Amino acid sequence: MKYPRFISKEDWCIKTNFMGLSKEKVIYEKGHIFEPNENGTYEVLDPYGAYQQIDEKTMKEFKTSSDDNFFEIVKEEVEDFDIIIEEIPDDDDILVRNWRIQLDVKTTRKKLKEVERIINEHVKPILNT
Q: What are the CA-CA distances from residue 126 to residues 99, 120, 121 (Å)?
């Protein structure tokens, strides 16, 4: 089963007050990605510095102080592609068609002319039969 990844929609801060000193510390910045482990739980640092295992339902229901969802599910990108299926006849090996042979090389012009000469001399006679 594939578990979703979550992204934080704002900074996750811890506010502490110790002996009259108030302090705010960001433990997760806005945009932090939370990845599930193999059990489908998410490791989240709690205000006391310990990691807690949080399940998917809790991640979905976790709210901000303004009662908005704190996390958003990361949309997985799916590549769009076309599949073209073409039936190839059994005698396709003997059909004459236009084909393109393209070779990209990094070489000098002199060596390229030598390759062209070899193709004209040895390959074109094979293709013209």
A: 14, 10, 10
